[in-house]
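Key idea: predict the complex, not the pieces.
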Amino acid sequence: MALMDDFVLGGRKLSSRLIVGTGKYKDFPTMKAALLASGAEMVTVAVRRLDLKAQGEASLLHWIPKEMVLLPNTAGCFNAEDAVRTCRLARELELGGENPLVKLEVLSDPATLLPDAEETLKAARQLVSEGFRVLPYTNDDPVSARKLEEAGCAAVMPLGAPIGSGLGLRNPYALQMILDQAKVPVIVDAGVGTASDCALCMEMGVSGLLVNTAISGAQDPVLMAGAMKLAVEAGRMAFKAGRIPRKLYGNASSPLSGVIGSR
Amino acid sequence: MALMDDFVLGGRKLSSRLIVGTGKYKDFPTMKAALLASGAEMVTVAVRRLDLKAQGEASLLHWIPKEMVLLPNTAGCFNAEDAVRTCRLARELELGGENPLVKLEVLSDPATLLPDAEETLKAARQLVSEGFRVLPYTNDDPVSARKLEEAGCAAVMPLGAPIGSGLGLRNPYALQMILDQAKVPVIVDAGVGTASDCALCMEMGVSGLLVNTAISGAQDPVLMAGAMKLAVEAGRMAFKAGRIPRKLYGNASSPLSGVIGSR
Amino acid sequence: MALMDDFVLGGRKLSSRLIVGTGKYKDFPTMKAALLASGAEMVTVAVRRLDLKAQGEASLLHWIPKEMVLLPNTAGCFNAEDAVRTCRLARELELGGENPLVKLEVLSDPATLLPDAEETLKAARQLVSEGFRVLPYTNDDPVSARKLEEAGCAAVMPLGAPIGSGLGLRNPYALQMILDQAKVPVIVDAGVGTASDCALCMEMGVSGLLVNTAISGAQDPVLMAGAMKLAVEAGRMAFKAGRIPRKLYGNASSPLSGVIGSR
Amino acid sequence: MALMDDFVLGGRKLSSRLIVGTGKYKDFPTMKAALLASGAEMVTVAVRRLDLKAQGEASLLHWIPKEMVLLPNTAGCFNAEDAVRTCRLARELELGGENPLVKLEVLSDPATLLPDAEETLKAARQLVSEGFRVLPYTNDDPVSARKLEEAGCAAVMPLGAPIGSGLGLRNPYALQMILDQAKVPVIVDAGVGTASDCALCMEMGVSGLLVNTAISGAQDPVLMAGAMKLAVEAGRMAFKAGRIPRKLYGNASSPLSGVIGSR
Amino acid sequence: MRATVNGELLLLPEGLTVLTLLQHLKAGKDRVAVERNGAVVKKARHAEELLAEGDVLEIVTFVGGG
Amino acid sequence: MRATVNGELLLLPEGLTVLTLLQHLKAGKDRVAVERNGAVVKKARHAEELLAEGDVLEIVTFVGGG
Amino acid sequence: MRATVNGELLLLPEGLTVLTLLQHLKAGKDRVAVERNGAVVKKARHAEELLAEGDVLEIVTFVGGG
Amino acid sequence: MRATVNGELLLLPEGLTVLTLLQHLKAGKDRVAVERNGAVVKKARHAEELLAEGDVLEIVTFVGGG
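Result:
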């Protein structure tokens, strides 16, 4: 049974709550099969220097289904200025559009790959002023998230765990606080390791997830993409369905009366 | 994308790995809708004294889709003897069949609803000798599980948490040990609270789950049934797909080279 | 500050709630130093065949401080009968005593080292009938614990995790249920990995802990023994002191009024 | 057995690794008894407007043992400027001293009481330039911690959980990353609920803890203070002693050979 | 004739078989199974199996359960 | 003369110094620090520092905190 | 004429525009965007925008990323 | 005379008691307990208890354990 609850992210109406990356696939055909299996309607892409030596090399874009919305990111930028310049180029690459969507990602260092909240905020303010719809990747500090929302970002995208770590949601308490205060969509970006991580985040009420390594790095990326698709839907449905409360002592699911031999 | 991997449980070939209960629904129509939404092919039913006063009351069986396999349980029994008698009556109710399937459940007390491993084992040995295909509900002690398997049970069904508690999988270490040693299907029975609990258990490699209260007790049982269906499939697919390893420090999903401004 | 709350275990009044084992030390002097550092008043010993070839070899007992109560165990027994015979020999080794204390341990197999609850219960009933004060090592199933208590055991000693695993308390829910029902002392036996594991168990209200590998296997056993001693005391005191409740949103520890610059 | 490993915090040599607050006690005598029971050598105090109406009221300082080092905090400040002004007044209150110690605490809002990393960093830079020894309370983001260290802070004090929440260490992964990179002492500040939380943090290798509400808010603050003292020592000793590794399958602590009845 | 049916002592007409008992109790509507004095009475024997004074009978059916 | 002390507008005698203000307020009993118009007034200067119309003063002390 | 393109110093023919540069570099096959001395050159202006000695150019495209 | 001691078949002198067996085995140094054919021999009876052909004896002591 399908649940009809689209949501709007950066002005785009989406029915799939799973956004997937296009990095680190062993080849383009595998990537394309995984993108299709994921059911994603939005995919992230990176902006990089054209390789002047690689003549006539196949282009990424030929392998991304046309109907999928491109979400350019600023991965690889370690300060606000580079991130802003990258977004301006991304806008040009996307052939304009009034309010281009960008995934803002300003990292602190190559070792931890953690976001630099200070620089991310600086870049977000600039980009918003230039008309971008900014989806910022951030840490799980509710204060950073609030400031990004106040800066006019179209969503906040806290990490579940470091990029590529596969640790899942390390701090549900922090995510709960972010959800309690946010008026824009909350997307968990980075850290997912497997399908149940997606379901768990969705059950907490996040609007969606952004996953790359957990799919592209799986032994069978296409199968994992399908698993993530179902897990995100399952988690959303469970969130809507209203789970039973947790208690130490349970209740019988079969009637305790009418048993044979009783008096 | 659908994953084709049927499994055999007590001689029945099943493609759905979610078994659901029929207890505690507010009415039969809701139950039927939930059963259908769950995609289950096997449903548990309890054996109880006929209510001599309730004339012409609607029967449970009219509301269970014909194609679903009935799995009679011995819920409510607190000793081996009552459980065995209940199974014999269940066989009669099922109109014979060579090797009738039963869910053996011998509880220790109404407060904790925990299984009595000693009595369960005693009943299992008797029932196997009478030709029953026994699916025993048990605690999460790997030794109990091994003895039930050695007694000839068709599967072992350890709890994730107490019946109706909604605590999910409380002790993944114990379940892992049970999986490491079992040569029969391992079904997690009882304790599930929400969809992610199902995905998590499936990702560990269990053959399936048995869920009742988490569906019938949800605010929207039909929607939760659908969520569980997807979560079980998602977890199974993720298990097959081979997740990425967990590590404290991750890896970039976008290339770190070719960034603008670099030298 | 010292907390005065002795407890009685198998008829012995103890002020230390840490019981330690004497196995797997690299040498006797290290063992003795660790026993002293642990502050233990009761130590476990195993019963084994005398090595007929080892002439004049130093004896374990010479290295155990005289004031420490010996608790002979039945480690290495895999069925009730061997355990009972071992206890009878232990009684003789202890030079009689009216109601000798024994740690009953009947394991299921050398791979998991998990207790065999069924055989343990059988042995417990026999030993109680022979006047032993039985301290049974058992799994964390509240039903097993209750049956052992009903059989007349002087305490129940559920595992925190498998012997020597160092995983700490894997299932606090199960331990809580055991504590809720037990009228005899509950001792967590096996599974402890480090000091905080001890504190955590004591804070839940257990009467004490039994630790061996986590001390003898530490890089510095004597220092770890001291750490465990303090952790057990700390956990007991915290349990008595009554901790603050957990909540997602906290409260300021400094007054929020009277800050400079405010109006 | 006592472990001799003093550490230096903001130029002060300390043998106790537990720093305690002076807030929220029901009365001064209880506070004093708790401070003594905690064994703390450094205590935090807040800077507040003198109450012009409260004539001749007892002073906090009369109740703090003279030998304890005062650590003034900037609690209640919600921006860098107020925090800096508060520190300047604190320096005057402390009657000068070359490089006064301050606990820098800039909160984001009264609801979450979470630190504002951006403002904290701004204030830290200013205070360091004025010769203060800054001990900053911060979130558990390793990037914030690194920037504070680079700004010249004498330590970093990440939260374990929100102030007064009693949730303990919510994100050990983040703390581990902070420890991996820090060259200054790491003190866990805020979030502790009970003794085992202290032991656990110390076992990870933090230099110390700062606790207030968990002591002052306990049913018996003096007893809890004693529990925390022991837990901090226990955790430190366990860290130094080198714990056994965790594994799913354990090892016997008693020899498996020489059992009676064997061949 | 008296018999205990599902835990209740009932006064029943003489000469009932399991089948006529079920009809007497209007228990036909459901799929049921019958245990007499601790042993199952197979459906095939419902018509022949005569009840006796003091019988203890259990008449069961399927109900919702987990 | 009017001055704001700890957020309250007070009417004070003319010619007060920080020191005489503290005496006037009976604020001697505690260890206190004073900020005048945003800048700390060192203890050594309490006797000389004359207050002026409209001054904004903060007089602080230590209280319990975490 | 020398210019730095994607971090490499290149010797280029005189009088190139952004458009002819891209053709010169056979960079037509992909969707690209160009930054000249820190400012984006809109596609519409590629044909007019003349390059100058010492220009620093970035020519970028989309690649896989997360 | 042959007897199995701690799992090993030993050839022993005739007429041994438990006590003289222990001396023969130089097993005096430790605190030991003895089981003969499945039953404990109390220390008080070590001097009288005569061994017989084919006895199965277990001589145990305390060793380190957890």
